Amino acid sequence: QVQLVESGGGVVQAGGSLRLSCAASGRTFSSYSMGWFRQAPGKEREFVARISWSGTSTWYGDSVKGRFTISRDNAKNTVYLEMNSLKPEDTAVYYCNAARDGGAYWGQGTQVTVSS
Questions:
Q1: CA 115 – CA 99 distance, rounded (Å)
Q2: What's the pLDDT score for residue 26?
Q3: How many CB atoms sit inside 10 A of residue 97's CB?
Q4: What is the C-alpha R_g of the chain?
Q5: pLDDT of 51-76, one tens digit each?
Q6: Which residues contact 102 (CB under 8 A, 6 or more apart)?
Q7: Number of H helices, E strands in the chain
Q8: Among the listed residues 45, 30, 57, the one whose alpha carbon sits nearest the alpha carbon of residue 93
Q9: 47 vs 34: CA distance, rounded Å
């Protein structure tokens, strides 16, 4: 089982940057594909980014391509989301996700608010 704890959320002005972190428990972190999703009030959960277990492959949602960067440090059991050029529409609760063999784990989420 994997436990995920997100951190790094907060309030930032439009055009600013934030870096989210997701710390995972367990010795099998490096075998999981890791991702970030977000959910704004009244909207469905949206895919943001994913990184393969090795870190060699990444995927991004269309709305964040070119602005967000996902990375991981398997030695620290941590995945990151670097968010630049933030927009008010990026405001949401951001969730970390670990996936492997058809199963998935979720963190509790961290709030990101971008003011205009």
A1: 32
A2: 78
A3: 22
A4: 13
A5: 999 999 999 999 999 999 999 999 99
A6: none
A7: 0, 11
A8: 45
A9: 12
